[in-house]
Specification:
This protein has 23 helices and 28 strands. Helix 1 crosses helix 19, helix 8 runs antiparallel to helix 9 and helix 17 packs antiparallel against helix 18.
C-alpha cells in the first residue's frame, strides 16, 4: 500500500472498476427479493448544490446497505425536466421567449438544454459515488413519462376522478399559469387598510378593504344577519364609488361582525371568501384582471396597470372624490406562488381538476398503511390533507410540458380522448381526424394546456415499475400495482410529491405507492436558511468541494444529520471525515504488515483479547443493523465509529502489538488466532463503512481481501456471510480489567510526564482474588501494553496500580 491515500486517482479507478463489473445493475428477473427505490428526480434548472448531495447520499447509503443484505436493489434515476422551472431556465439562458414560436420548436430547445444539464448532473452523481443503475434512467418528459402521464389521465378520467370545469382558479400572473394549492406559500407584506364610503340612498356606508383596485369587480356587499347596524338594509342596493353602479346588500353568516365596519365587499375575485360567496349567492362574474396581470380595458382609469400601480391610482381617484375616509398601515399575510414569490390572483378559467376533497379520508387511511420515518412526519401529511380547500388543478397555461390527450367539440362541448395506441400525443401537433362521436360535428379543437409537473412526478412509482413491465399494462381495470420499497424525500414536499403520489396510487389501484417513506432535512446555510440555487447562499459548490475533499469525506458529512432534521453545513465535520480516511488507511496499512495465516479460522481458543474484540464487534454490528434498518443512518454510523476508533484502534491494536512485534514470546496458535481475528474484524469494519465511504473501502478490499474472497467488490459482499455473531462474556470481563489496569498506568505516566513507552521495572497491581486469577492469565498482554518487565499482585478490595 502507498504511504498516503490518493483519493483523486483511486476514485477514478474505482469508478471504472464498478462500471466494468456492473456492480450496481438491478436484477430485473426477480431472482432475488427486490428493494425498489422511488428516487427523487432533481429539477433540471442549472446546477446542483450541497443540499442535493446531502439528501441523495442518504438514499445511496440505504441502497448500498440493502444490496449487501441480499436484495436486488432497483435504484433508478430520473431528471425532472418537465415544467416551469426548466422553461424559465431555458428562457434565461438562451434569452428567448416561447411566444412567437411553435410549442414543438420551444420544446426542442428545452430538451437540448436539459440534456446538457443532465449530463453534468450525472457526472457529479457518479463522482460522489451514487450506486445508481444508470440503465434505469428517465426524464419526466421523455416518451416513457409522457405515455404514462397521459395514460394515467385517461384512466382517472374514465373512472370519474378527473373533471373539466370553468372555475375560479388560483392563478399566477407572473408565470401566466394556474397553480395548485400545494404550490402556495404565505408571505408577510406591508399594505394599507383603506376605509371607502359607498352610497346607500343618501347615507354613506364605510367599507374597509386592502384591495380597492378591485372596485370594478365588486358584485355584492355583505353584512352579518345578526348585525343590527345593517340588517334593516336587506334587499336594498348600494352604489360603488367612482364606477357608480349598484350592487345588492346581502346577509352572510360568515362575515365577521367586529372586523372593520362589519361590511365587506365581494369582488370577483379577491380571495377565497369571494369565491365561496360568488358560488353560494349565484353572483355575476365581473373580472378586472387579464392573464398577464394587467387591468382590463373595462376598468377605465386602471386599464393596463398592474396590481400595485392600480391600487395607488384608485386611491388617488377616490381621494379626489372624497370617498377615502381613512388609511391605516398594516402588515398581513398574503398568498404567493412558491416559485416566483408573486401574489396569487383568482381568475375563472376552463381547467382540468382531479377530485381530492371528496376522498380525504381515503388518502389519510392510505398514509396509515405506510411506514413513516420519522413517524412524526405523518402528522404533517395528515394536517395538510385535512385542511385542503381546493381540488387539484391539473392544468397549466405554459408551453413546456406534457399535453392533455384530448380534443373539444365546439358544437356540443364533447370531450374526445386519445386512444392508448396514439400515446404519447400532442393534440395541437396532430389534429383530430373524423367527426365528434356525439354530434358528428367536425368543429373540433385541440386542448391547449399542459399538465402540472406534479402530475408526472406523482407517477414516479409507475415509471419505476415500467422498467420491469410493459408501460402499456400499468393502467386499466384489470391491472395491479405492487408498492415500491422506499420513497426518500425532503420534508418540504410532503404536501406535494408525497401527497400527490399517494393520491395517484390510491385512485388508480386502491393501494399505497411504497411501503416506507424516509424524510430527510435540508442543509442550512450559516444564516440558518435552507441552501438552494434560488437563495444564492450555497457556501461551497460540490465540484469545488470534490477538489478539496474526497467523495468519501463529503459523504461522511452528509451522514452526520439526523433523520428528518435540518443540518447546518459544517466544514469541521468534513475535516473529521478526512481524519477518518487517514485513520482507516493507516490502520489497514498496519494490517498488511501482518498478513493473515493460511488457515481460515482457528477452531480452538482464540484468546481473551480476540474474543473480547469479536464480542464487541458483534454487539456493534447488531446495534448498527438495528439503526440502519430504521433508516437512522447517522446513529448507525456513530455506532461503527465508536467501535473502530475506541475498541479497534485505541485498544485492540495497541493490545496486540506486543504479539505481532514479538511473536517469539507467544505460541504460533496464539499469533495465528490474533492475525485471523485482526483481518476478520478489518473486513467487518469495511463492510459497515462501505455504504458511507464506498471508495476507500473498495480500495482497501481490493488491496487486502479480494485475493481470498469470492466477491469482486466489497459492495457485493454479503453482511450475513461475514458478520458472524461472537459471544464471549467472560473474555469481555477479563479484557475490561486489563484495560482498566492499562488506563491507570497511562494516567500515572502522564502525571509523571514520561513517555507511555517508558519501560517499567515492576508493575504492582492491587486487586481482589478473583481479579488476580483473571489478570494473571493475561500477564504477557499486560506487560506488553504497559511496558512492564515484571508484575506483582497484592490482594485488595479495589483495583489499583503502582509503579
Amino acid at each position: 500500500m502507498e504511504q498516503k491515500y490518493d483519493h483523486i486517482r483511486c476514485e477514478k479507478e474505482i469508478q471504472e472498476l464498478w462500471q466494468k463489473l456492473s456492480v450496481y445493475a438491478a436484477d430485473t428477473a426477480h431472482e432475488k427479493e427486490q428493494f425498489s427505490i422511488d428516487t427523487p428526480p432533481p429539477t433540471v434548472s442549472g446546477s446542483l448544490h450541497i443540499g442535493h448531495i446531502f439528501s441523495y447520499t442518504h438514499t445511496d447509503i440505504i441502497a448500498r446497505y440493502k444490496r449487501m443484505t441480499g436484495y436486488s436493489v432497483v435504484y433508478p434515476f430520473g431528471f425532472d425536466d418537465n415544467g416551469l422551472a426548466t422553461e424559465r431556465f431555458v428562457e434565461k439562458k438562451r434569452n428567448i421567449t416561447p411566444h412567437g414560436m411553435t410549442r414543438s420548436e420551444f420544446i426542442a430547445i428545452c430538451l437540448e438544454e436539459s440534456q446538457i444539464a443532465e449530463k453534468k448532473f450525472e457526472d457529479l452523481w457518479q463522482k460522489i459515488g451514487l450506486s445508481v443503475d444508470w440503465s434505469l434512467c428517465y426524464s419526466t418528459i421523455d416518451e416513457r413519462s409522457r405515455y404514462i402521464s397521459q395514460a394515467s389521465f385517461i384512466d382517472l378520467y374514465k373512472k370519474g376522478f378527473i373533471y373539466r370545469k370553468y372555475e375560479p382558479s388560483l392563478y399566477c400572473t407572473a408565470c401566466r399559469t394556474a397553480v395548485a394549492q400545494a404550490e402556495l406559500d404565505d408571505a408577510d407584506k406591508d399594505s394599507q387598510f383603506i376605509d371607502i364610503a359607498f352610497k346607500q340612498d343618501s347615507q354613506d356606508l364605510i367599507i374597509s378593504t386592502t384591495r380597492p383596485e378591485l372596485l370594478f369587480s365588486c358584485v355584492a356587499v355583505f353584512y352579518h344577519p345578526d348585525d343590527t347596524r345593517y340588517n334593516h338594509l336587506a334587499g336594498k342596493t348600494i352604489q360603488v364609488p367612482h364606477y357608480n353602479f349598484t350592487v345588492p346588500l346581502l346577509a352572510e353568516d360568515t362575515v365577521t361582525i367586529d372586523k372593520g365596519t362589519g361590511l365587506v365587499m365581494c369582488c370577483t375575485f379577491g380571495d377565497k371568501n369571494d369565491i365561496l360567496w360568488f358560488k353560494k349567492h349565484n353572483l355575476v362574474y365581473k373580472p378586472s384582471i387579464a392573464h398577464d396581470g394587467r387591468w382590463l380595458e373595462a376598468t377605465g382609469v386602471l386599464a393596463g396597470l398592474k396590481a400595485l400601480p392600480a391600487r395607488e391610482k384608485i386611491v388617488e381617484v377616490l381621494t379626489e372624490l372624497g370617498a377615502v375616509r381613512g388609511i391605516k398601515k398594516i402588515s398581513h399575510a398574503v398568498t404567493v406562488h412558491e416559485r416566483c414569490k408573486k401574489e396569487i390572483e383568482y381568475l375563472a378559467l376552463s381547467q382540468w381538476f382531479l377530485s381530492v376533497l371528496d376522498h380525504k379520508k381515503r388518502f389519510i387511511d392510505a398514509a396509515e398503511q405506510i411506514n413513516w420515518y420519522p413517524e412524526f412526519m405523518k402528522s404533517r401529511y395528515v394536517n395538510w390533507v385535512e385542511n385542503l380547500g381546493w381540488d387539484w388543478c391539473l392544468s397549466r397555461q405554459r408551453f413546456y410540458g406534457i399535453p392533455f390527450p384530448a380534443w373539444h367539440c365546439q358544437t356540443c362541448q364533447e370531450i374526445i380522448l386519445a386512444t392508448p395506441e396514439q400515446l404519447p400525443i400532442d393534440p395541437q401537433e396532430k389534429p383530430f381526424s373524423g367527426s365528434c362521436p356525439n354530434c358528428n360535428s367536425t368543429d373540433i379543437t385541440a386542448d391547449t394546456d399542459v399538465m402540472d409537473t406534479w402530475n408526472t412526478s406523482s407517477l414516479s412509482p409507475y415509471i419505476v415499475a415500467s422498467f420491469a413491465q410493459d408501460k402499456e399494462t400499468l393502467f386499466g381495470d384489470t391491472t395491479t400495482f405492487a408498492p415500491l420499497s422506499m420513497r426518500p424525500q425532503a420534508h418540504d414536499i410532503i404536501r406535494t410529491w408525497a401527497f400527490y403520489t399517494i393520491v395517484k396510487a390510491s385512485l388508480h389501484h386502491d393501494t399505497i405507492p411504497w411501503k416506507d417513506i424516509v424524510i430527510s432535512g435540508h442543509v442550512l446555510s450559516t444564516a440558518k436558511e435552507k441552501i438552494s440555487k434560488s437563495q444564492g447562499n450555497s457556501p461551497l459548490e460540490p465540484e469545488n468541494l470534490l477538489k478539496l475533499y474526497s467523495a468519501d469525506v463529503i459523504r461522511y458529512w452528509t451522514a452526520s444529520g439526523s433523520l428528518g432534521q435540518d443540518t447546518a453545513f459544517s466544514e469541521n465535520q468534513l475535516k473529521i471525515g478526512l481524519k477518518l480516511t487517514i485513520k482507516l488507511w493507516n490502520a489497514f496499512k498496519f494490517m498488511t504488515m501482518h498478513p493473515t495465516p493460511e488457515t481460515v479460522e482457528n477452531q480452538g481458543n482464540l484468546g481473551a483479547i480476540n474474543e473480547w474484540m469479536l464480542h464487541e464487534l458483534s454487539q456493534t454490528f447488531a446495534q448498527f443493523t438495528q439503526y440502519i434498518e430504521k433508516y437512522e443512518i447517522g446513529l448507525a454510523l456513530a455506532t461503527a465509529e465508536k467501535f473502530f476508533w475506541t475498541v479497534f484502534c485505541d485498544n485492540y491494536i495497541e493490545l496486540i502489538k506486543n504479539q505481532l512485534f514479538n511473536p517469539e514470546k507467544y505460541s504460533k496458535q496464539e499469533v495465528d488466532a490474533t492475525l485471523w481475528s485482526l483481518h476478520h474484524a478489518g473486513l467487518c469494519i469495511l463492510q459497515m463503512y462501505a455504504p458511507y465511504m464506498p471508495y476507500i473501502t473498495e480500495v482497501l478490499y481490493q488491496e487486502i481481501y479480494k485475493a481470498r474472497c469470492k466477491e469482486l467488490s466489497i459492495h457485493t459482499t454479503q453482511l450475513v456471510d461475514i458478520q458472524k455473531p461472537y459471544i464471549y462474556a467472560e473474555s469481555v470481563r477479563t479484557i475490561e480489567l486489563v484495560l482498566a489496569v492499562a488506563e491507570q498506568v497511562r494516567k500515572i505516566k502522564t502525571e509523571k510526564q514520561v513517555s507511555l513507552k517508558t519501560e517499567l521495572p515492576e508493575l504492582i497491581i492491587a486487586c481482589t482474588q478473583e481479579q488476580k486469577n483473571m489478570l494473571e492469565q493475561q500477564s504477557l498482554l499486560i506487560m506488553g501494553i504497559t511496558h512492564a518487565q515484571a508484575l506483582t499482585f497484592n490482594l485488595a478490595q479495589e483495583l489499583s496500580v503502582s509503579l
